[in-house]
Specification:
7 helices; elongated
Length: 179
């Protein structure tokens, strides 16, 4: 899980990066503008943005609106900048290292839970994945004399045993059967 640090002063951003890296987080970039932050976010599927309320080119609210929903956002604010902040986690400055680490851990955990829920949602498969599953079932039905339900259960069991998704398991079955 990548973290993007965004601060108008690069030195401050690097300090936050060093704290996070020291505690085992992967920091993909340190940015000074919202535009740079959005460009970095576009290259990642998901992640966490740690930033101040005001960057060089935009405020935190604009950045949140432009970030994909697959990103969590932690905003560090000075005492006088408190306002109603929705869809973000707020930390007060001066920063306490343990609070930053705990908050970053919570954000990463939240993203991982969301990712797992998406992974196991039924019907969320692409057409290609559906075709692979269908083809694997057909092969099992022909070569192993299974019903469609038995073939599906077989793929599910292999998927659970191997820790892979159904489409990955179906692809492996096709490969093993020479298809």
């Amino acid at each position: 899980m990548q973290i993007i640090v965004a601060f108008p002063k690069i030195e401050n951003g690097k300090s936050i990066k060093n704290i996070l890296v020291k505690h085992g987080f992967q920091v993909g970039a340190v940015c000074i503008t919202g535009d740079q932050t959005l460009q970095c976010a576009d290259m990642l599927e998901e992640g966490v943005v740690v930033c101040t309320a005001r960057l060089r080119d935009m405020m935190w609210r604009q950045l949140r609106e432009c970030l994909p929903s697959s990103f969590e956002m932690i905003v560090l604010v000075s005492g006088g900048l408190w306002e109603e902040m929705e869809q973000v986690t707020v930390l007060a400055m001066p920063l306490k290292v343990h609070e930053l680490i705990e908050t970053a851990e919570a954000a990463v955990l939240s993203l991982e839970k969301r990712k797992k829920r998406r992974k196991f949602q039924p019907g969320g498969r692409s057409e290609e994945e559906k075709q692979i599953l269908g083809k694997a079932k057909e092969i099992l039905m022909k070569r192993k004399s299974m019903t469609e339900e038995e073939a599906h259960r077989y793929i599910q069991k292999c998927s659970m045993d191997s820790g892979r998704s159904l489409p990955e398991t179906a692809q492996m079955i096709l490969h093993m059967m020479g298809e």
